[in-house]
Design brief:
Blueprint (H helix, E strand, L loop, with lengths): L10 H4 L12 H12 L4 E6 L6 H12 L2 E5 L6 H11 L10 E5 L7 H10 L9 E7 L7 H4 L3 E4 L6 H15 L8 H7 L4 H14 L1
Parallel strand pairs: 1-4, 1-5, 2-3, 3-4
Length: 211
């Protein structure tokens, strides 16, 4: 019997967390950001951890919870001109009801040296644009200056202890997508993905299509 695949998009998109509470594991980051969202103020965060642990997705979930206007600088695009454009936009009143801008900079450790130096001044209270939350993500911090690191609140993302919850999550996804089809070994999928949930979902989709 062929499985009835009823999803209209890739599993990684369909099951992407939308709120802070939706994330698997990551209890400490969720607590930090939930408390911050309850009483937000201009700040700078640095989300540090391996690829696939949900750093960018959690930043977007925070923005959604705050009803903030997102200004996203993608990976490999953080140049001086990109930073200047983002900062300029932050001086305007946000178009969203939350009253905040959230500037998301992916893979901040890959930004140009000049862009990093520019951020050093903009993260200070005297030069910071109003009602703006900066959220930087990176896999490691070796390329970031100590002065930059000192201006950010570091939030650690880890896949440690994720395996059991992640396997249960994959089982739930399988039940929703193909309830009448023999299940794969979810624990094995998580192990082969090295606790990278995004990779595990991609592997699960392959199993669904091959069933």
């Amino acid at each position: 019997m062929q499985p009835q695949l009823n999803y209209p998009q890739a599993l990684t998109a369909k099951y992407q967390p939308r709120t802070l509470a939706d994330f698997i594991g990551l209890e400490k980051p969720k607590r930090i950001l939930a408390k911050f969202a309850a009483n937000p103020y201009p700040h700078s965060f640095l989300f540090v951890g391996p690829s696939g642990t949900g750093k960018t997705t959690m930043a977007l979930a925070l923005a959604k919870q705050l009803e903030a206007e997102v200004i996203h600088i993608p990976s490999q695009h953080c140049t001086v001109s990109d930073v200047e454009d983002a900062i300029r936009r932050c001086w305007y009143v946000p178009m969203t009801p939350g009253g905040f801008h959230l500037v998301l900079i992916d893979e901040a450790d890959q930004m140009t040296e000049k862009a990093q130096l520019l951020f050093l001044s903009k993260l200070d209270a005297t030069a910071r644009p109003p009602q703006t939350i900066f959220t930087f993500t990176c896999n490691e911090t070796e390329k970031l200056e100590p002065r930059f690191l000192s201006r950010c609140l570091r939030v650690e993302f880890s896949s440690y202890g994720l395996a059991t919850d992640a396997a249960a999550f994959l089982a739930n996804v399988w039940q929703q997508e193909a309830p009448n089809v023999e299940q794969p070994n979810f624990e094995k999928l998580i192990k082969e993905s090295r606790n990278n949930l995004r990779d595990a979902l991609t592997r699960l989709e392959s199993e669904l299509l091959a069933a």
